[in-house]
Write a structure and sequence with these properties.
This protein has 14 helices and 2 strands; from the N terminus they run αααααββααααααααα. With 356 residues, it is an all-alpha fold.
Length: 356
């Protein structure tokens, strides 16, 4: 709204700052952070009153987790409020890329909210059936992919190669939808320890804030040999809002957590990152930057596939962060080491912009 207001007035005086993506991205970070820090205590108290026993804790997991019984979930609502208000203030309301990201973020959040509500109401960790979730996720992701791609290029750009890509044709729509859904669920699987998913999301969002800005700028894109995507710079505003909202949430989610993100937040954040990557045409780079989430998801897939085939487990427990807990690593050590790993992967992802 503020950007639209400044645009209508012709950017007079200090409002000229609104022309710059760098200013609006920074403002989005600060706005979402401030909103989260202010609303956090009130929302956590509300969730605690409404949920009573809080999120159910699996009794077949690490025994140290049983002490977390009673911690409220659905804390992702705090993140969503910060993102929504920040975007409304600072985004270009005419940007189809941003609206596609908003569609996925809110749509996946609604699915996650229903799943969290079902778990709390039934005092069970199962939630709604996975097939039902996936069906609605693909519908939402498919709609967002159609909005983003339209009738434009269907090239899947390759990292480390200047302006080179594979023409996927109509298959690109399916690939884009898969990227969004897969990343939404990968972040969801990672959200199993206090702060574990939140900081890697911040790192990935900050990385893609830079990537979106660069690919949206014709001069920088040409210099780096990356595809120029008109309007993609607006996705930096989305990433900024995610960074600020997640940092505010981490203030309350740091060990020991006062609130859990729940599927409400993790599905929404993962879907948002996937949509930003599709919008910036850097889907494969997301696999590098968000490699931690990919590994977490793959550990579950491998564990299930091998167990069904042989009756044996590859990991002591999946997702893989629980495997390290079962090896005797304290939760805080697992979290911090995974954060470090995420930073290394983000730097590797940024390196693909130059090593072409």
């Amino acid at each position: 709204m503020l950007y639209w207001f400044a645009e209508q007035l012709g950017y007079p005086g200090i409002l000229n700052l609104f022309r710059y993506l760098t200013f609006r991205s920074g403002a989005a970070v600060a706005t979402a952070l401030l909103i989260g820090l202010i609303l956090g205590p009130w929302l956590i108290a509300l969730l605690r009153r409404k949920q009573g026993r809080g999120q159910p804790i699996r009794d077949d997991g690490p025994q140290t987790h049983l002490a977390k019984q009673g911690t409220p979930t659905m804390g992702g609502l705090l993140i969503l409020i910060g993102i929504a208000v920040s975007l409304l203030l600072w985004m270009d309301l005419s940007s189809s890329l941003v609206w596609a990201t908003v569609l996925v973020t809110l749509g996946f959040a609604a699915i996650g909210f229903m799943d969290d509500y079902d778990k709390v109401a039934k005092a069970s960790h199962r939630g709604i059936p996975g097939r039902v979730r996936l069906m609605f996720e693909f519908i939402i992701a498919g709609a967002a992919s159609w909005i983003i791609l339209g009738d434009g290029s269907h090239l899947l750009y390759l990292p480390f190669v200047s302006n080179a890509g594979v023409d996927l044709g109509a298959f690109y729509y399916l690939f884009a939808a898969f990227t969004i859904v897969a990343f939404g669920n990968a972040v969801n699987l990672t959200d199993g320890l206090d702060g574990l998913a939140t900081m890697p999301v911040v790192i990935a969002a900050a990385t893609f804030m830079l990537i979106a800005y660069l690919v949206g700028n014709a001069r920088f894109a040409d210099y780096l040999g990356v595809p120029h995507v008109p309007g993609a710079g607006e996705l930096a505003i989305v990433c900024g809002a995610i960074v600020g909202a997640c940092l505010a949430f981490l203030w309350f989610n740091a060990p020991p957590a006062s609130v859990f993100m729940g599927d409400t937040g993790s599905l929404a954040l993962g879907g948002a990152l996937g949509t930003v990557a599709v919008g910036a045409r850097h889907e494969l780079v997301l696999g590098v930057v968000g490699g931690l989430f990919v590994i977490e998801a793959m550990s579950v897939i491998i564990q299930v596939a091998v167990y069904k085939r042989t009756g044996r487990r590859v990991f002591r427990m999946a997702p893989i962060h629980h495997h390290f807990e079962q090896l005797g690593w304290p939760e805080s050590k697992v979290v911090i080491r995974f954060w470090i790993f995420s930073i290394v992967l983000a730097l590797a992802g940024l390196a693909t912009l130059k090593l072409r």
